[in-house]
Amino acid sequence: MDDLKSRAVRGGFAKLCGQVASLGLRIVSMAVMARLLNPEDFGLVAMATAVTGIYGLFTTGGLSSATVQRANIDDGEVSALFWINIVLGVVLALLCAASAPVIVRFYQEPRLLWVTIIIAVGFLVNAAGVQHLALLERQLRYVAVSVLELLSQMVSVLAGVGLALAGFGYWSLVAAGVAQSAVGTICAWVATGWIPGPPRWRTSTGSMLRFGGTITLNGLVVYLAYNLEKVLLGRFWGADALGIYARAYQLVTIPTDNLNSAVGVVAFSTLSRLQHDRVRLKSYYLKGYSLMVSLTIPTTIFCALFADDIVQVLLGPKWLEAAHIFRLLTPTVLIFGMINPLYWLLLSIGLQGRSLAIGFVIAPLVISAYFMGLPYGPRGVATAYSAVMTIWLVPHLVWCLYRTPISLKELFSVVSRPLLSGVVAAAITFVVQFYPWGSPVLRVIFGGCLMVGIYWAMLLFVMGQRALYLDLLEALRKSALR
Question: Of 51, 106, 294, 436, whose CA is between 20 and 30 Å from 208?
Fold first, then answer.
């Protein structure tokens, strides 16, 4: 137990540090690219990726999760999954390239033909590294995972910015994505040193395919639910409107995406090792969930308060329309921060079927919201999206926790402390906006520092969370000495 705890804490800390660096890179890249390119450039790429992203869901086939979740797995089983991933990558690359003319006709945009074909190459490249990355995660080698992710992102940023400076426009965004996939796969091979064996069918392969298939179907349903609005906006409102919406959406989700990536994969690997020990699983999960919401809630509330200033500082004055969408989407992102970690729990204890059923309910709800808001443009879509997700929050929590080791009362207890601390910090920080700073940069910096100070003072001393974080720091200290 102590070894698993120290590995989990060390891995989580490594991922968190990696994601902090990744967050900084993404913000700098976004700020630079937003000034070098136009909303239409981002909109064109978003048109293609909103559709081709569906193919991307099948690249892993859910088999990376099967490798991590399985209690015992040998080299032959992983090799079998590797070759299945390669076949999937080839098929998906061909399908994506073949669908390019259809995408062009749908959007009535001929520039999307070669954009889609180049994106297709990335599916094969990604497929070659799926099992290598899964092996690193299974072994809780998150220092290596963080390094390779950061390195691939750095190459991607340099490629994108370099091509944008050279005047390649939207092609710089396409090249950045392909470069990140290629470098990530190469680094994963080097880090593991694992060479796949010949393709041989194993008896256990069938059960892992069923597990992965359920996860993939779940991912497909959720992807359609959370990305169809981009397709609709691109089709009915054009590349410029979609570019503004997509930038606002990406900017507001960056913090939660990075946190979920940092904590989620470590939590899934750790909880999978504890799936038959409900007591320890409950303890580990609640601590991980508490850490996640404690970081997500204040970040999202701060984004809502200072939306105008954040957009002006990071994206520039030509993106001011994105600030309205940015603020309207913050309730959705806050809810994502509370419901997404439940996926770790369901998957680790083998309840992927329930997660799929939940996805089949979420999809028609949010898609209906998109159609209700579509006549009013990006702002209408963002408003309807947040309204539906707010209504859905409690039913989602109840359904996910049914007959699991975690009770709804325990989860609410975990959420209430950071939520109340965030509200108090936001109420005090709100007055900062009315002070004549003269510069949005100063307002963001001072407001951020003030809110962080008040929030953590509330959480640690008023809400009594010092023990939790002191325990995490002690575990981290012990793991560093091993």
Answer: 51
Q: Is residue 74 helix, strand or coil?
A: coil
Distance CA 12, CA 25 (A): 20
Which phi and psi angles does 249 have, rounded to 5°?
A: -65, -45
d(CA 333, CA 305): 14
* Closest C-alpha among 321, 317, 398, 413 to residue 361: 398
Model confidence over 7-36: pLDDT tens digits? Answer: 666 666 666 677 778 778 888 888 899 889
Residue 364 burial (C-beta neighbours within 10 Å; 0-12, 13-18, 19+): exposed
Rg of the chain over CA atoms, in angstroms? Answer: 22
Token digits for 37? 């390119």
CA diameter of the chain: 69
- Candidates 350, 255, 179; CA nearest to 22 is 255
DSSP state of 460: I
Contact 245, 378 (CB under 8 A): yes
Distance CA 448, CA 461 (A): 20
- Do residues 350 and 275 lie in contact, with contact meaning Cβ atoms separated by under 8 Å? yes
Report DSSP state, residue 464: -
Q: What is the pLDDT of residues 86-139, one digit of tens each?
A: 888 899 899 999 999 999 999 888 999 999 999 998 888 988 888 888 888 777
CA 223 to chain centre: 12
